[in-house]
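re: ur question from earlier - yeah i can do the single chain one, its not a big deal. heres the input i used so u can compare w yours
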Amino acid sequence: MPRLDPSRPASPAPPVPPTSPVREDLAGHVRRALGRTLGVPPGGLSDGRAGLRQLGVGSMAALELQRRLEAELGVPVSLHVVLTAAVVDDLIDHVTARYEQAAA
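and the output i got, formated as tokens:
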């Protein structure tokens, strides 16, 4: 995925359909980054309804994941969302919205 300029003003993004190609690409990226952060193979994170806390995402892992996603995608990712996202799909939705905002 190309890096985008995060300095561009963000505008509210429309909801992203759960089957959009961009969302699917970013879902794989988020799962790989989460797997690297937790030391879990990405295939073990295929259930988007898996709880982040249950997977072991605490404050330090959340900070590492946030920084990793921002560095790799070039878009801002809210640490608050990483810490409070109930399930993997919530995080994927946030990252997708931020990516699409930056691309607009």
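The radius of gyration is 13 Å. not sure if urs matches, ping me
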